[in-house]
Amino acid sequence: MDLALLNPAQFDLPTIWFVLVAFFFVGYFVLDGFDFGVGMSLPLLGRDDTDRRVMINTIGPVWDLNETWVIVAGAVLFAAFPEWYASLFSGFYLPLLLILLALIARGVSFEYRHQRKHPQWTRAFDRMIIIGSVLPAFLWGLIFANVVRGLPMDADHNVTASLLDLITPYAVLGGVTLTLLCLVHGAVFIALKTDGDIRGRARRLAAVAGVPAAVAAVAFLAWTLNLETFSGQPLPALMAAVGAALAMVAALVANAVGREGLAFGAMAATVGLAVVTLFLSLFPHVLPSTSGEGGLTIVNASSTDYTLTVMFWVALVVTPLVIGYQIWTYWVFRRRLTRDHIPAGAH
Q1: Would you say 198 and 240 are in contact if contact means Cβ atoms under 8 Å apart?
Q2: Please, what is the Cα angle at 214 between 213 and 215, to 5 degrees?
Q3: How far apart are CA 161 and CA 177, in angstroms?
Q4: Whole-number mean pLDDT of the chain?
Q5: Which domains does the chain have, with CATH numbers?
Q6: Which range is least confidently modeled, 106-120, 203-217, 253-267?
Q7: 249, 251, 254, 255 alpha-carbon torsion, rounded to 10°
Q8: Helix (H) or strand (E) holding 59
Q9: Taking Cα atoms as reference points, which of 276, 296, 299 lies closest to residue 286?
Q10: Which of 121, 173, 185, 297 is a Cys-bridge partner for 34, taking CB atoms 3.0 to 4.6 Å apart?
């Protein structure tokens, strides 16, 4: 084999890293997405503390591992596209800060809700889990919708939009869409990971929430493909959007006939393809400008070829290890949970 063929400099490095950024964000929304959905489901499925404990235990061994995907995505974004990273954090400082605080509150609640045997203590942390699940899902949808639509920027690529400029009908629809998709994703995961009465209730919740989620997703993706500021790849984005819609239908059908494994896989595909649609709607831009100034593309936002090349080899070694460890973790904790697994008096 000619080793020169393995030289990443022979390929379009900014494009490779755009794909890798998209990959890590897809992984984050697919994995942490059902974590959000489980948290949202606490008041909808949990009839008592034992039910809520069962639901939390379904994600107990994996939620923190799922959350690391956004850390990796952020680190990759910072190293590969520093201009994109800087503009995002300057333009979305408050929403990103709220996401961070919500994730901290959710993580603390998982660890502390059972530290005292007092109903008010437990309910307070349950509320933090719910808020820490709904708020990030909505705000991530809001942020990505604004990124795809584009924002006003100055000549130095600083976002000049105010907070109110971020709250548009399209962006709000993006937030609602991701929230509903996460709710269905989480309900399907609970049905996959539990048995008994809670399993049936989770399937019914997925069926009920699936209808408005599908309607919102179709409306949002159709709106995305018809934005006046659309600057991406029309045909690939359309194909990904159609794939997301078909996967959503497959998920609802599989859930209706009790095939939770297929339903969960189809929901993962739905969320993943929806995120892929957004990235395809951007490429080769990473943050379009609506103010007449030049927006950010994969070329003017990327690091040097040397930096991207070194990172390529690091990613080539580390990424398979991360994926392998994640698969192993899910395999170890694959069994279904029931109320019988919760000791009497546990919180």
Answers
A1: no
A2: 90
A3: 23
A4: 91
A5: 12-338 (1.20.1630.10)
A6: 106-120
A7: -110
A8: helix 49-59
A9: 296
A10: 185
- Residue 307 CB contacts under 8 Å (≥ 6 apart), including other chains: 79, 80
68-72, 86-90, 267-271, 284-288: which is most confident: 267-271
What would the two tokens of residue 45 be?
Answer: 């499925």
pLDDT per residue as tens digits for the range 211-227: 999 999 999 999 999 98
CB 102 within 8 A of CB 131: yes
Q: In angstroms, rounded to a whole number, what is the distance separating the alpha carbons of residues 274 and 185?
A: 13
Q: How far apart are CA 52 and CA 71, in angstroms?
A: 28
Half-sphere exposure of 325 (CA within 13 A, CB side): 10
φ, ψ at 204 (rounded to 5°):
-65, -40
pLDDT in tens, 71-115: 999 999 999 999 999 999 888 999 999 999 999 999 999 988 888
Phi/psi region, residue 227 (left: phi>0; alpha: psi -120 to 50; beta: rest), is: beta
Contact 308, 175 (CB under 8 A): no
Provide the residue count of the chain: 347
Q: Which tokens go with 309?
A: 């090349």
Read off the pLDDT band of 169 (50, 70, 90): very high
pTM over 0.85: yes
C-alpha 140/C-alpha 39 separation (Å) is 16
- Distance CA(296)–CA(250), nearest Å, equals 37
Q: Count each helix (H run) and each strand (E run) in the chain, helices first.
A: 12, 2
